[in-house]
UniProtKB/TrEMBL annotation:
It comes from the Bacteria. Ni(2+) binds at residues 80, 88, 147, 149. One of its GO terms (molecular function) is metal ion binding. Residues 6-58 form the Helix-turn-helix type domain. The lineage of its organism: Bacteria, Bacillati, Bacillota, Bacilli, Lactobacillales. InterPro entries: 3H_dom_sf, 3H_domain, HTH_11, NadR, WH-like_DNA-bd_sf, WH_DNA-bd_sf. Keywords: Metal-binding, Nickel. This is Transcriptional regulator. Residues 76-172 form the 3H domain. It comes from Ignavigranum ruoffiae.
Length: 175
């Protein structure tokens, strides 16, 4: 299979997939290295394919959005150390939210953003395990623990409950 055909097939796979696909899964399927797949994704993005890289793999942005047109989207600002990360994520999920991304405002680079797409307790466990396995640093380590999450909730009421519960836990940044 030629590179151009492989890239088109990757797009087709992403369109048909119900879940994220990792670079390793693509590499195994197309019998190339993971790095070749990363390059393919970069070329597809340069060709205007809106592909998101999440901690669980690649997804098309159009398929990763909120499930309901009545969903509420908002942002929260939090501050905590790495030891409260799981608590923060659990509060959001248990109160009915989905964590779309995390952002920090770096003094040199400006806004740094990572797509998360965490919508279940299993997603939280996977994220925490990946951070541990790869000895990952939280983006918020660059900004004294201050970070922003974009959230999606079924209604504004769930969003308000998330903020209240994060505030009670000492995680919501309120200065």
């Amino acid at each position: 299979m030629k590179a151009k055909e492989r890239r088109q097939q990757i797009l087709t796979d992403l369109r048909l997939s119900q879940s994220p696909i990792t670079a390793n899964q693509f590499a195994d399927k197309y019998q190339v290295s993971r790095q070749v797949i990363v390059g393919d994704i970069a070329l597809l993005r340069a060709g205007y394919a809106d592909i998101l890289a999440t901690n669980q793999g690649y997804v098309l942005a159009e398929l990763a959005g909120p499930k309901s047109s009545t969903a509420y989207q908002g942002k929260i600002v939090c501050q905590h150390g790495p030891e409260q990360t799981e608590e923060e994520l659990r509060i959001i999920i248990q109160d009915g939210g989905q964590i779309e991304d995390v952002q920090v405002d770096h003094p040199v680079y400006g806004i740094l953003k990572a797509s998360l797409k965490i919508s279940s307790l299993a997603d939280i466990e996977y994220f925490i395990q990946q951070m541990s396995d790869y000895q990952g640093e939280m983006l918020s380590s660059l900004t004294d623990g201050i970070h922003i999450h974009s959230l999606t909730t079924p209604t504004v009421e769930e969003f308000k409950q998330i903020k209240a519960d994060l505030k009670a836990a000492g995680i919501l940044y309120t200065r």
